[in-house]
Write a structure and sequence with these properties.
Blueprint (H helix, E strand, L loop, with lengths): L1 E9 L2 H18 L3 E12 L6 E12 L7
Antiparallel strand pairs: 1-3, 2-3
Length: about 70
């Protein structure tokens, strides 16, 4: 079965480093081997509600291990 996991982060140097670490740890923890990766850029309203800040969205499609059927 193919599944997808999506990650959202700030498009800053620090934000990208944090996202790299988070994705690498998630892949290692779950033994993920990606089949397809897609990146998108956009903006989101800043927490103060006045400004927009750049964001990156990364979706990773991967093959999940067979799940037990009850």
């Amino acid at each position: 079965m193919i599944k997808v996991q999506t990650f959202l982060g700030k498009a800053t140097i620090d934000g990208l480093h944090q996202m790299d670490t988070h994705i690498n740890e998630w892949m290692k923890r779950h033994g993920v081997k990606p089949l397809h990766i897609q990146q998108s850029f956009g903006s989101d309203r800043h927490h103060d509600g006045r400004n927009q800040e750049p964001i990156i969205v990364i979706s990773i499609w991967y093959e999940a291990a067979e799940e037990a059927v009850l």
